[in-house]
Design goal:
This protein is α/β, with parallel strands linked by helices. It is 46% helix and 8% strand.
Length: 386
């Protein structure tokens, strides 16, 4: 598949008869439709079209125009107010506390690696205030974005849970990690409102204004892919330790992972990475679905600014949650993380009515690059017509 796409974007042959040029707007549109079929997990199928560029019906243009002068300003001001308010809560209640840094994190700093520091290990009433207000304000923010109600369902444990551990129902094992499909940045807000877990984030997030301190209060595990020091144990090692810690210690912060490693349009489930399953601890699978009529909340093939703008223009947005029972791995799954990940993935796909796909992040990048090239050709055709 990758070779086919490279051929589409490669330099054309010298002979005019052999050139696979897209000579008309219909040719380009057909090429984009073919791309959407090949890369179906990332294709947008809503009213706003590929990359959110339309074309828009006249009625939709009117709705957007009205929303941009009414809903968008109000929602933007409210969202920023909530963000600043929670930042102030985090600032006040961590004012005289030093961030948690394990001994191994100090070794990483000396070796040039990523230093993991957070306020998620802080105990007492101050931590309770940070978590409680964080969960509440995250839900308020979702309400501001138009998610007025979020229905949650829990399938029958007898039909979804693994047989392992059923004999210990008196004291069930605590899950080491929450795993979820990944559709949008909105996923993070929901999980913050539901359980306030730690996430994996780029190291730069910890240095951002407002958001940086909030990420430390969440206990985010920071990633810096360019770190290549021999003393750097890697994000997988840090995540593995945090999963084990959450499993054995009820007061430890829960960690939340998106094992697909990237977002989809919500109809598909990509191959799971094994990071969440290496520790062999029970996992809590959560499925997020975003039903829509006009605009899809899925964050794919569309810029962040355009996505936020269109999201704020929708008076009502929808989110449905399926919380599966804790999955207890068998001994075979504990010994084979790939098998463990695959079985959880199949269960989530079955319960969430999603299609399994073997595509990955590399395929997504190819799709985006090729899509951008074809859309630039469409703009040229439109300019010529004008």
């Amino acid at each position: 598949m990758e070779s086919e796409l490279k051929e589409m974007n490669s330099n054309p042959p010298s002979s005019k008869e052999e050139r696979p040029l897209l000579k008309s707007e219909s040719d380009v549109s057909a090429a984009i439709e073919e791309l959407d079929k090949k890369f179906a997990p990332y294709a947008r199928t809503d009213l706003y079209g590929t990359m959110g560029l339309g074309p828009f019906p006249a009625t939709e243009k009117v709705k957007l125009a009205v929303a941009m002068v009414t809903l968008v300003p109000v929602r933007f001001v409210l969202a920023m107010s909530i963000l600043v308010l929670y930042y102030l809560v985090c600032r006040v209640f961590t004012l005289f506390s030093a961030p948690y840094r394990g001994a191994e994190e100090e070794e990483e700093e000396e070796g040039g690696g990523v230093v993991q520091e957070d306020y998620a290990h802080m105990g007492g009433w101050r931590r309770s205030v940070i978590v409680g207000s964080g969960r509440f304000l995250s839900r308020v923010l979702l309400f501001v974005f138009g998610f007025y109600w979020i229905p949650e369902s829990c399938p029958d444990p007898e039909t979804t849970s693994s047989e392992e551990g059923e004999g210990d129902k008196e004291e069930p094992e605590r899950p080491g990690v929450i795993v979820s499909n990944h559709v949008s940045y909105l996923d993070i807000l929901y999980h913050m409102s539901a359980s306030f877990p730690s996430f994996v984030a780029k190291r730069s997030v910890g240095k951002l204004p407002l958001v940086g301190l909030i990420s430390k209060c969440l206990g985010c595990v920071y990633v810096q892919r360019e770190a290549k020091s021999p003393d750097f144990k890697g994000v997988s090692g840090t995540v593995n330790e945090r999963v084990r810690e959450a499993h054995r210690n009820k007061s430890a912060p829960t960690i939340m992972l998106f094992p697909e490693g990237t977002t989809t349009n919500g109809d598909y489930l990509l191959t799971f990475k094994t990071g969440a399953f290496l520790a062999g601890t029970p996992v809590l699978p959560v499925i997020l679905k975003y039903p829509y009529e006009r605009f899809s909340a899925a964050w794919d093939t569309i810029s962040g600014a355009r996505h936020v703008l269109f999201l704020l223009c929708q008076f009502v947005n929808h989110l449905e949650v399926i919380r599966l029972p804790v999955y207890y791995p068998s001994q075979e799954e504990k010994d084979n993380p790939k098998l463990y990940a695959s079985n959880v993935r199949r269960l989530m796909a079955s319960e969430g009515n999603m299609i399994l796909s073997d595509l990955g992040l590399g395929d997504k990048r190819i799709y985006h690059a090729t899509l951008n090239g074809n859309l630039s050709k469409l703009r040229v055709f439109h300019q010529k017509e004008e």
